[in-house]
């Protein structure tokens, strides 16, 4: 079924100037970009987005990294978009990411891991709404 998922190109990948290469992978996989914005997240925005991880030992580093430079945030739409995007990204830890995935090709470490993608349709709904109003999303059929 057609789904939406929230994707973030993280500060490391923006700094490497590979936004276009990553967009190309989404498009070649049949995912359509239906909303996008570049943001330099505030600490409050990053903490709110990752609230589910706030008890984890890596939370402070995660928030520090995600606020270290601009990110590109997009809504991807397509058949089975949540899982399809996760397949494209590869494992969270780039050392475990399959060859040819975004993280295998562009990521340095588990913190600087190039991209974020929603992990379920339920989190996609929350994460899309965190960054975009319905009037900012342009369904393209
Ligand atoms: P992301 O998909 O953005 O969701 C939370 C992020 O926390 C994750 O990608 C990683 O970049 C980062 N992170 C750092 N350490 C860990 C860890 N041990 N387990 C999961 N995520 C981690």
TrEMBL record:
Pfam families assigned to the protein according to its UniProt record, in alphabetical order: NDK (PF00334)
Top-rank taxon, per record: Bacteria
Essential cofactor(s): Mg(2+)
Residues binding ATP: 10, 58, 86, 92, 103, 113
Molecular function terms, GO-annotated: ATP binding; metal ion binding; nucleoside diphosphate kinase activity
Class of the enzyme per the UniProt entry, highest EC level: transferase
All copies of domain Nucleoside diphosphate kinase-like, residue ranges: 2-139
Catalysed conversion reaction: a ribonucleoside 5'-diphosphate + ATP = a ribonucleoside 5'-triphosphate + ADP; a 2'-deoxyribonucleoside 5'-diphosphate + ATP = a 2'-deoxyribonucleoside 5'-triphosphate + ADP
One GO term of the biological process aspect: UTP biosynthetic process
CDD domains linked: NDPk_I (cd04413)
Record's keyword annotation contains Protein biosynthesis: no
Record's GO cellular component terms: cytoplasm
Places the protein is found: Cytoplasm
Residues of the active site: 116
EC number: 2.7.4.6
Keyword vocabulary terms for this entry: ATP-binding, Cytoplasm, Kinase, Magnesium, Metal-binding, Nucleotide metabolism, Nucleotide-binding, Phosphoprotein, Transferase
Keyword tRNA processing: no
Quaternary structure note: Homotetramer.
HAMAP family documented for this protein: NDP_kinase
Family, per entry: Belongs to the NDK family.
Biological function: Major role in the synthesis of nucleoside triphosphates other than ATP. The ATP gamma phosphate is transferred to the NDP beta phosphate via a ping-pong mechanism, using a phosphorylated active-site intermediate.
NCBIfam families named in the record: PRK00668.1
Name this protein carries in UniProt: Nucleoside diphosphate kinase
Origin species: Modicisalibacter ilicicola DSM 19980
């Amino acid at each position: 079924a057609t789904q939406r998922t929230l994707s973030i190109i993280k500060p490391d990948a923006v700094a490497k100037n590979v936004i276009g290469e990553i967009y190309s992978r989404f498009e070649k996989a049949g995912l359509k970009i239906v909303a996008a914005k570049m943001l330099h997240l505030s600490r409050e925005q990053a903490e709110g987005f990752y609230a589910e991880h706030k008890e984890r030992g890596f939370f402070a580093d995660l928030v520090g990294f995600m606020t270290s430079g601009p990110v590109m945030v997009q809504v991807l739409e397509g058949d089975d978009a949540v899982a399809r995007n996760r397949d494209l990204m590869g494992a969270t830890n780039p050392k475990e990411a399959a060859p040819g995935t975004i993280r295998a090709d562009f990521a340095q470490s588990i913190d600087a891991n190039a991209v974020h993608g929603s992990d379920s349709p339920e989190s996609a709904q929350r994460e899309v709404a965190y960054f975009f109003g319905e009037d900012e999303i342009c369904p393209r059929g």
